[in-house]
Design brief:
The protein has 84 residues and is mainly alpha-helical. The protein contains 3 helices and 2 strands; from the N terminus they run αβαβα. Strands 1-2 form a two-stranded antiparallel ribbon. The longest helix has 24 residues.
């Protein structure tokens, strides 16, 4: 699981660098779709949890309430949350 998560984090970092290059060249594309932001938030937590645990920390989400949907680029939102 840790190897898979580390590989995913590395791929995310590479994609971030490529996105930055696209942004600087004016070639960044947005892919708008409807999605539940809770899913993106929970995925971000799963991706960074091994790193947190290696430092003796833990992060939990307690998002309650009815699900809702937004229209945005889920990949870009995922990048923002992972970077934060």
């Amino acid at each position: 699981g840790y190897i898979n998560t580390a590989g995913t984090r590395l791929l995310t970092m590479i994609n971030d660098i490529l996105s930055l290059m696209r942004l600087e060249s004016g070639d960044l594309k947005m892919y708008l779709m409807e999605f539940d932001p809770k899913e993106i938030f929970e995925t971000s937590i799963r991706l960074i949890q091994p790193l947190l645990e290696s430092k003796g920390m833990h992060l939990e989400s307690n998002l309650i309430g009815k699900p809702y949907r937004i229209v945005s680029d889920p990949g870009k939102i995922q990048q923002i949350l992972t970077n934060l």
